[in-house]
Amino acid sequence: MSQPPFPQDARFSQPLPPYAYRDDEISLVDLVKTLVKRWKLMALVFVFTLAAALAFALAMPQKYEYTTIYTIAEVNAETPLESAAGLQTKVDNLYIPTVVRDFLPRHQLETVPFKLNISNPKGSSLITITSQTVEDNESLVQELHGAITARLKGEQDAHINHRVELLQQQIGAARAQIELVKKAALANSGELIASFTGTINGLQAQINNFQKGTVFAIANQSLQTKGISKTLVLALGLMLGAMLAVMAVFVREFIGQLCASLQEETE
Q: CB within 10 Å: which end of the chain, N or C, has fewer?
């Protein structure tokens, strides 16, 4: 049995018309020829993009990182006065809001022009305050960092002073007991005096072990700038310029062919 010349549709008795196939593939040679033909457009887009990147890099302000380091006060060599995590939370939620509320109206500012980052290096008894900003804000950073660390150190010093006063009161009470024992002339007065003396020495050792918090540096400026470097901006400008230049050529070519096609249809 012979086959029909065209495929049949099950719903219609008439054969389907043949499908006209057009070869729309573009070879690599055609692509290169298009780029060469539109080299002026490519150069214009590339130069414009690179100039914009250069202008942005030159106008981009240079930021530095300012660091303040505070050593947490200690009860003894192994025990901090407060835990680093608790102290960091206190600084974030108590000291900074209080200091900022006083700082803003004094300088007629609505917001602080830089961020305050509080951290505790792992395994250390340090609290660090860091801010990234331009050099013009250095005095503001120093003032704000200094106010925060002053509040921090002042409260910790007050805690230590209070503990020292309590220990000194206990020492005074022990010395008073020694005087009473001496006056009473008891049979075991020597043992009692030795016991009270040991207590006094232990209390005095606790006082001597206290170490107050220390501020190492206030808003110490980094040696190198922080943030996106100008070199990186120029490198990105080169890459973006090359990409946009190629894209502009193909967009221009597409628009040209589309306009020519529309013109043929109207004719």
A: N
d(CA 133, CA 71): 24
Asked if residue 8 is part of any domain, the answer here is no
Parent domain of 142: 63-221
Q: Is residue 249 part of a domain?
A: no
Whether pTM > 0.70 for this model: the answer is no
Calculated CA dihedral for residues 182, 186, 191, 194, nearest 10 degrees? -10
Per-residue pLDDT, 231: 78
DSSP, collapsed to helix, strand or coil, labels residue 108 as coil
Q: What is the CA radius of gyration of the chain?
A: 40
Question: Which tens digit of pLDDT belongs to each residue from 124-166?
Answer: 889 999 999 988 899 999 999 999 999 999 999 999 999 999 9
